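To close the section, here is one more complete example, presented without commentary so you can practise reading it yourself. The ligand is uracil.
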Amino acid sequence: MRLDKYLCESSDLTRSQARTVLGSGEITVNDEVVTRGTYVVRDGDVVKWEDDVLELIGLRYLMLNKPAGYECSIRNSQHPPVLSLLDVDKRDRLHTVGRLDVDTTGLILITDDGQWTHRIISPRHQCDKVYLATLAEPLIENAEDRFTAGILLDGEDKPTLPAVLERVDERRARLTIQEGKYHQVRRMFAALGNHVLALHRERIGPVSLDPDLQPGESRYLTPAEVADLAKSSS
Ligand code: URA
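Output:
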């Protein structure tokens, strides 16, 4: 990788700031001052900015227990962004894997790996998403069959893919879907004449929300979780 790119990827420097720092002779590679941005950094090279070793951050994969009141989108929002809950470097490089509504709580995945995100959210890859819904009205009798058959949502021309509904009690149900249409779960229950009072995502594919994470807390995924998610949605 070129040294100017390496500096940007391993620090908060912009490209033009990196050029200035290089020009000032503050960067060394293997203890030799290097001022050329085009210099190629190879595996094993030690890049320092004065006394600090600069290391590439690499791709990151996190899970967050999303509290209500935070927005996954970063544009035009009246609510704080979920990414503001993370205390990590270069936060602006990260994105959420799909979106949860402002009021929805629970598991959200966050990464800077666009390909991994695509595998998980693409309906073609059929990755399960499991939600616990608290409802305003008791569930109707044949709700399970309606969800299995697919539900025609308001404004759509094709029914939803088969979904699995499990009754928890009279007003709570666990729903497994593989798509991610806008407000999908709320619209599916609305099609049955019900209303979702609270919605919590418990699981995506093989990865469940870590019960040790309080609302607003996050942790890095383990390498096994990262690989299992990619595998389950390939
Ligand atoms: N379905 C919804 O209706 N809302 C969410 O936040 C996620 C799925």
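Once you have examined the tokens, check your reading against these statements. Residues 223-232 form the longest helix (10 residues). Residues 100-101, 104, 183-186, 199 surround uracil (CB under 6 Å).
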